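debug: dumping io for the single-chain case to check the tokenizer round-trip. Nothing else runs in this session.
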Amino acid sequence: MTRAGFVALIGEPNAGKSTLLNRMVGAKVSIVTHKVQTTRARIRGVAMEGDSQLVFVDTPGLFQPRRRLDRAMVAAAWGGAADADVVMLLIEAHRGMTEGVERILDGLQDIGEGRKVALAINKIDRVPSEALLALTREMNERYGFAETFMISAEKGHGVQALREWLAAEVPEGPWLYPEDQIADLPMRMIAAEMTREKLTLRLHQELPYQMTVETESWEERKDGSARVEQVIYVVRDGHKGIVLGHKGETIKAVSKASREELAEFLGRKVHLFLQVKVRPNWLEEAERYSEMGLDFKDGA
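debug: decoded output
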């Protein structure tokens, strides 16, 4: 008897959803940085646990939206939760019941009907056990969670117990993806996410989130390697200079790091070419949202 189902990971930005997804799947399929709001599209990672196939939907962090892109990201997050068989709310142990968590709990009242909602308290190594117990009690008084888990997504503590519970909770039925598939994102999008992660890490606070990466072409070569061309879109000329760096140092470092990770991911040689283009209005272009797996209309 096989089981398969969708598990939505929801929570505030930086709660550790991408780290947990990558830990569950056993491979890096979601961008992970120290910055908030780095996950833009709903990335599905596929994990096997016994005879169960768990399809994880890593949603953008839920926050108060201000721009069109923000609104589209929040709509994608709630859409992912509404479509899932099991919803997993991830909160940070040391931050506890924040205003953002309060808003998410209110939102869960609307989509929680008819599906299991579990709570995972992450980063448990940051607080004493008494505080964890008090937070568990407070959260469960506020919402009727099916189960509560104490985990460290980064270190792996408690993650196996969570996997096993999810494996038993997804519906009976055939697997949704081939057994050896770990993500349903096109490689073009995974490659773009890898480059965007390297940019985000490298630039720190220098560049706002008004930047995106698209894989413009992907050529499979006869020698087994791949030639990949990507465009980094920014909104101002000044941002272009920051991305390029002094004598092109920044773009070279980003290209090297992204190429090496992509080659390791694919298990073959990659030729990566990056260029930077200024598009002042890319945040208002429907095509850019489609590339990120978001619905332009949701941002209206």
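debug: round-trip ok. The domain at 3-169 is CATH 3.40.50.300 (Rossmann fold).
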